[in-house]
Amino acid sequence: MRNIPVDTNGLAFVCVSAPRPKLVDQDTGEVKMDRHGAMVYQVGLSVADEATGRAELINVNVSGDPGIGLGEIVRPVGLVGFPWEQTRDGRLRWGIAYRAERIVSAAAAVESGPASPSAAAA
Among 75, 81, 96, 112, which has the highest number of CB atoms less than 10 A from its own CB? Predict the structure, then answer.
């Protein structure tokens, strides 16, 4: 599947849903693990375009507990989107899923400088 890097410059992110383990199966409670055995967390973020003021809500998956809290201004590092589609009960569903290398406090991101070379190139 094609990963599409997301340029986060000019976007403001706020944690609107605290990190929680991503479930593979709602019925059994099985938790999703990444290929290295780390638990995958899902974080709800509001994303505001600083130029237009438009805002969206997205869920971002990240390996390991990002250690951020509800209402915190954050910066996703290495954010990518990828399209998906599936047929369930005869109905086609589709969307864009998001994943990040990590999600850090915006204050910590400012103190450490540019998030990563990939973010600067995106």
Answer: 75
